[in-house]
């Protein structure tokens, strides 16, 4: 699954630079995650890096984006291919 940021976000800025896929960005009110880019850090790290650093634990899985590990790995590979161009 991709992860999402809830409205408990305090805009502390620490998660955005930790994302290896540049999936996190500052939206109109709070930080947001682009589900097309979030692999739950599969391909890069064992644990989601944003969840590790978030001080208010406001980054749950996105129930709209149920994806298994294989799908996340395919997303990772696609993102790597896109980045190479
Ligand atoms: S889980 Fe990983 S890839 Fe997804 S938003 Fe967090 S840091 Fe980025
Ligand atoms: S680390 Fe958590 S509180 Fe800080 S900006 Fe990211 S989602 Fe928001």
TrEMBL record:
Residues 1-29, 31-64 form the 4Fe-4S ferredoxin-type domain. InterPro entries: 4Fe4S_Fe-S-bd (IPR017896), 4Fe4S_Fe_S_CS (IPR017900), PSI_iron-sulfur_center (IPR050157), YfhL-like (IPR047927). The keyword Iron applies. The keyword 4Fe-4S applies. It comes from the Bacteria. Keywords: 4Fe-4S, Iron, Iron-sulfur, Metal-binding. PANTHER family: PHOTOSYSTEM I IRON-SULFUR CENTER, PHOTOSYSTEM I IRON-SULFUR CENTER-RELATED. This is YfhL family 4Fe-4S dicluster ferredoxin. It comes from Curvibacter cyanobacteriorum.
